Amino acid sequence: MTITAHGRHTETHEPHWIEWATGMISALVVLAMIAWVGWEALRKDALPPEFSIAVTRRTPVEGGYRVEFDITNKATKTAAAVVVRGEILDGGDMIEDADVTFDYVPAESNASGAILFSQDPGTRKVRVRAIGYTDP
Amino acid sequence: MSGVAAAPGSGTGEFHHFLVGFGRGAAGAMLFGMPMLMTMELWHLGFYIERYRLLLLLIVNIPLLVILADRIGFERTSTWREAFRDAAIAYGLGIVMSATILVLLGDIKLHMPFSEMLGKTAIQSVPASIGALLGRSQLGGQAGGNGDSDKDDPKGEEADQGKEGNAVPNELSISYSRELFLMAVGALFLSLNVAPTEEIILIAYKMTPWHALATIVISIAIMHGFVYAVAFKGTHEMPGETPRWHAFFRFTLPGYLVAMLISLYVLWTFGRLDDSAPMQMLISAIVLSFPGAIGAAAARLIL
b or e along B38-74 (b: 16 or more beta carbons within 10 Å of the residue's beta carbon)? Predict the structure, then answer.
């Protein structure tokens, strides 16, 4: 409890037990947090970003065709300005390509997006891959 | 304390007094809301924020304003009814001021969809309404007229107690929960200021876990130093015989935890935690808790 008198605040000498209980719980949580971050700091080398991309849905949209995908960064470093390129391949020939840029793909996290093609890939192969990134 | 409730006789004086309070509220809304009203990310959030998160923020703001009004409302004798009234006025002022300034800045235009205008105004009204409430009480200060200055005026205090039986005694006991609540308000306010910007997550991405560890320690140290060591006006004192570490455990560490929780809530509200790994969420929260902790400590001193 805090006593405010004449504009000064003075903490009471005899605190309620709940103040100590809250204090102890907070101390434990803060220590746990420090331990977790510390463990993370010791355990991990900073691995450069590594992406895996999975196409989740393909739907025709007005004036084209949408391919939605999830991009996962498995590494412990975040990538910025990640450019993902989608290509429609017919045998060895590239029929159409389209790019999309992600501001960030955080470490060990997902991001999702979509590529819009002007045509339905049909039975042709669709390849989606990350072609570059910058360090944040 | 010769406010609206205490001076029923003077009709014009009462109205003038109300207008002054209103003006202070509007000034406070501008003063505290302006940084956010001029933040691009917050305009964008206004239309893409998920509506249930916005709704939750708007609802959470109501009890927050009411308790804040009860605690610091410019009538120190305020009842819950008056606290509700003050909170409603502050929220209203926050909405009107936000909408007006957004229109002035050309950020709200007639051809926009209604939900966009609504979202932009709604998200800005939360910090602006807190500002309106703070403006009414803090800008009031010793300016006289509303009798806030009677803290240092024993005669006025006696007179007020004579007039109103339920007057708060000069020695005010702030319960522990109130103290934590004030820290939460301070942390929320500063967090709302900086959380919408992209910089917060960018900083979190740039940081290594070592940086994060240092930030935790420094946040806690600043928080403790702000309240107990550096002698600002309103600095909290410990009775001579109490060891200094008592305050550290009873106030500073819980305060930091409050700042952390508020940071997580604000980050979640703005969608900054979506699809992130737990470690990334934690580091973002640690980054945001840095200003949050300063806000929490400042709130203990100012409010």
Answer: ebeebbebbeebeeebbeebeeebeebbbbbbbbbbb
